[in-house]
Amino acid sequence: MELRMRIEDLRFSYRDKPVLDGITLDIIPGEVIGIIGPNGCGKTTLLKHLNRNLDPSVGRVLLNEEDIKDMHKSDIAKHVASVPQSNEIHFSFTVRDIVTMGRMPFLGKFQGESSDDVRKVDEAMLKTNILGFADRYINTMSGGERQRVIIARALAQTPEIMLLDEPTLHLDISNQFDVLELVRKLSDDDGLTVIIVSHDLPMVVRYCDRIVMLKDHKIFAVGTPEEVLTPANMKEIFNVNAVFEKDATTGQNTVRIFGSCNNRSA
Amino acid sequence: MSKGSAEKRRIRLLAVTAALVIVLLISMVLDLSQAFIPLSLKDAFMSMIGMSDDPIVNTIVRNVNGPRVVMGCMVGAGLGVSGAVMQAVFRNPMASPYILGLSSGAAFGAALAMTIPLGTVSMLFMTPLLAFVFCVATTFLVYFISRVGGRVPTETLLLSGIAVGSLFSALVSLLTYLAGERMAGIVYWTMGNLSQNGWNNTLIVIPLILAGSLIMLTRGREMNAMMLGDAHAKDLGVDVKKVRLEMLISSSLVTAAAVAFCGVIGFVGLVVPHIIRILTGPDNKALLPLSMLGGAAFVVLCDYLSRSLFTNLGILPIGILTSLVGAPYFIYLLRRRRHEVGWN
Fold first, then answer.
1. Which of A45, B24, B118, B139 is the most exposed place for a label (fewest CB within 10 A)?
2. Which of A91, A96, A101 sits opposite B342 (nearest CB)?
3. Which residue of B has its CA nearest to A151?
C-alpha cells in the first residue's frame, strides 16, 4: 500500500520562460500536503507533473524509485488519481457512469467491468456519500455535488496518492468545508496521500499536515503550517499582514489575514 | 440498488437496436424495389434473401440496385460513426466531417479530377483518388494549423476547419465556374449520388469504411473520458494526443472513402448521432455502433425518398434530401432539446 513519491530537481519551461525552476520534495505517505503561492508561481504546473499530465524539461518524479517517465500512463493512473479544477460537464452521463470511469486504467480494450469493479465503484460512492444519487445526471448537479462525484471517480482508481487542483474553487462555503473534511477523512482512515494546490489559505492551513510555499518557480518554504505561515513569509510571498493561530476553542489551525501590506491601517 | 436502472438501460438499448435494424431492413427493401420498371416489395425482398427465380428481378435487385443500397449502408454507417467520434473527441456537438473541412477538401479533389482533361477512363479513376488524397491532406492541414505549442485546442481546430473548408469551397466554385461543359458533372457530384456505383466501387469502399469504423469502435471508453475534458482523460491514463490523432485519421479515412465515391452527403454525421444520443444517452460504447446502424438506415431511406418522392422531377440527388430532412431537424434540436444533446 505504501507508495513513496519523490520529486527531484524538477524544471519546466514554457516558451523559454521557466515555470518550475528546480523543485525537490519528498512526499510522506499518508500526509495531506498543501501547495500554495501567488498566481503564476507554478503550483498547478507542478501538480500536472505528478501524474505525467506534463513531462518535465529536466528532473524527474519517482514513485517508489521508478521514474514515472518510464511508466505507462494507465499504470500511473492506477496509483495516482487526480481531481482537476472543477468545470462543467455538458453531457448527460449519470453519476455512476462517471465514477465507473475510474476503473478505466484497469480494463483492457475489450474488457467489460467485472463485479469486482462494480463493487469498488459502489465503495467509492459510499465513502463520498453519493450512492443515493448514482442514477442522477451529472449536468443537473451543483458544483459541490459534482466535486464529490469526481473525488469518487478518483477513489474508484484505488489510488495511494490523490492530487486536487483548487478543490474549493466555485464552491459554497459549507461545501468547501465538506470537500476538505472528506479528503482529510480519507487520509486519516485509509492512509491516502493527498496533495492539494489551493489559493484558499485558511482551508489549507486547517486541513494540511505540511505546506509547501512556492515563489518565483522555486520552493520558498516547507514545513508545518505553523512553521511556514510566519508573518515574515506571508508578507514576502503574498504581500499581506497575517498571523498563524490555533483557535482557542476548537484547537484548529487558522490564519488571520489583516490586509494588504500596501494598506497602512492593516 | 441501481440494478433496476442498469436493467432498464439494457432493455432500452436492445429496443433502440431492434428498432434501427427494422427501419434499416425496411428501407433496404424499399430502396431495392426502386427501378425503371415497377417492382413489388415482395419481389425485392425475395430476391434480396436469394429466394427469387425471376432473372429480370434478380438482375435489377442484385446487380443494379444491390451495389447502390450496400453503398448507401456503408456511406451512412461511416458518416454516422465519424460524426459521433468527432463530437466526442472535440467535445463539441457541432463537430462533423463537414465542419472540419474534410468534405470540402474531398470535394475539391474530385472537382479537380473532373476539370483537368484526362480522358474518360482516367477521370473515373482519378476522381475518387484525388478526393481521397485531398480529404486526408485537409485533415492534416487543419490539424497542424491549429496546433499551439504541441496542443490542439478545440476552438482553434474548429476555426481552422471552417477556414480551410471555406477556402476549398471557394476553389470548388472557381473550378465549377471555369469548367464549362463539364460543370454539370461537378455540380451533380457535390450534391451527392449513390447510383453511379457498381459492385466494383462498392467492394473498394466496404473494407475502407469497415476498417476505419472498427478502429473507432474500439475507443468508445477513452472517448467517454475525453468528453469530460482533456484533463479528466489524461488523469485516467488516456493518451489523449494519440487517441485524438488516431480518431482523426480513421474518421478522415472513412469520410474520404464515402465522399470520393458518392459526393457530398450532408448532415448524416451531425443529425444521426444527436438522435441516438437522445434515445440512449452519451455513452460512446453504445453510441458509436448505433450511429453506424442509424446512419445506414437514414441514408438508404433518403435514397429511397429521393427516387420515389418527386417522380415527375426524376431522381433527386440524395445530398439534397439528407439536408432537407437534416437541417430542419437540427434547428429543432438547437431550439428544443439542447440540454439532452450536450449544448449549453
1. B118
2. A91
3. B232
